[in-house]
Design a protein that fits this description.
Dihydrodipicolinate Reductase, domain 2, binds nicotinamide-adenine-dinucleotide, alpha/beta, Rossmann fold, six-stranded parallel β-sheet, 29% strand
């Protein structure tokens, strides 16, 4: 089946989605875009050959014929947009982070459920970072029981515009990808979260630039994660340590080290969603929504699932503010 879609918000991230649509034209046709900023709207229409453009969501709903909306507005202008689309009976893929707060995320899930539409989140790092490869090997027992996950993500990143004025920064921009990835590969929910966050004076923004978080999962695995937007040394690597083997992940792929004593990896996998595959990683999240619409089931990256990811994010902020470890019950605060 081919879906007619509309893109709401034609800024930076929308180009990743448009490239993904172009690679999967058998599944998707973009019939309209919506953005109050005429420059971005006109550029998207021209560059990607989109027939209709609208300045407001009201005009879009009244004037375009589409089944699915891809929402790429800034995080802080998401809830009202989702509510309008849900009330109009549109299925929705929203960008990450799903919401700026847990309450906002819960309201959006309820709004969509009330209107009988499906809601999915673009957690594209499930694929762009090779979490999908790790998930498969963990499920197949390749590394045995997973004792620990250690993830380092460090680089120097100076944002501009609305992001610099948000109270929440590094964890909301990047951390939400990693926390979601941990839950997804383990198939387990958080039991407690402890975190420390700081703002570096070298980065012009309001929120945290550097953080360290530890999540204990219900299945006994713990994940330690550090992130820095102020490090002059870039690094992005995850180690997944099991009692039968260790996996090393970076964007390009994954390696397995076993207990044979050999210094080289026992097996290697290339991540086809890494590098130039990023638009495909976003499309895969949309495809999960399409499959759910076709089957009548919930998408694997659904809004209700994502509430558990938002809970880890919320708990990390609470921990950093209070100085306490935050306990969770069934993955909930
Ligand atoms: N998944 C990823 O890899 C990834 C990467 C970058 C950004 N993002 C997320 O995508 C979202 C957007 O980020 P961005 O970098 O594209 O921001 P941006 O500021 O570049 O673009 C946002 C666009 O939304 C438009 N907009 C604002 N209010 C609107 C409204 N009411 N209706 C329609 N359009 C509206 C703006 O005019 C702008 O063109 C954020 O939530 C961000 O976290 C995700």
């Amino acid at each position: 089946m081919k879906f007619n879609i509309a893109v709401i918000g034609c800024g930076g991230v929308s180009s990743m989605h448009f490239e993904g649509f172009a690679r999967h034209s058998d599944r998707v046709e973009v019939v309209a875009v919506c953005d109050p900023f005429e420059g971005n709207r006109a550029q998207a229409q021209q560059k990607y050959g989109v027939a209709q453009g609208f300045a407001t969501v009201e005009e879009l709903i009244a004037g375009a014929d589409f089944t699915v909306a891809v929402v790429c507005t800034p995080t802080n202008v998401r809830e009202a947009v989702v509510a309008q689309l849900a009330a109009a009976g549109k299925h929705i893929l929203v960008e990450k982070p799903f919401a700026s707060s847990l309450e906002e995320g819960e309201r959006m899930v309820e709004e969509c459920e009330k209107n009988g539409v499906l809601l999915a989140v673009d957690q594209n790092f499930r694929y762009h970072f090779p979490f999908h490869l790790a998930k498969q090997q963990i499920a197949e027992g390749t590394v045995g029981n997973v004792t620990a996950i250690h993830l380092q993500h460090m680089h120097f990143r100076q944002d501009t515009g609305w992001r610099t004025r948000e109270k929440r920064h590094t964890l909301e921009i990047m951390g939400v990808h990693w926390l979601d990835g941990f839950r997804w590969i383990l198939g387990s929910e958080g039991k407690s979260v402890s975190a420390q966050m700081r703002h570096s004076s070298i980065i012009d923004c309001v929120g945290e630039t550097d953080l360290s978080a530890q999540v204990a999962f219900e299945n006994g695995t713990f994940a330690t994660y550090i992130d820095s937007f102020s490090s002059l040394i870039p690094r992005c690597e995850a180690l997944i340590i099991g009692d039968k083997g260790t996996l090393r992940l970076d964007y390009g792929g994954m390696e397995l080290y076993d207990h044979s004593g050999a210094p080289q990896p026992a097996q290697k996998w290339v991540n086809s969603f890494g590098g130039d595959g990023k638009p495909d990683s976003a499309f895969e999240c949309l495809e999960q929504l399409f499959l759910a619409i076709e089957s009548g089931e919930q998408p694997s990256n659904g809004g209700r699932d994502n509430i558990k990811t938002l809970t880890l994010m919320e708990a990390a902020y609470l921990s950093s503010e209070s100085g306490y470890t935050i306990p969770l019950e069934g993955g909930q605060l």
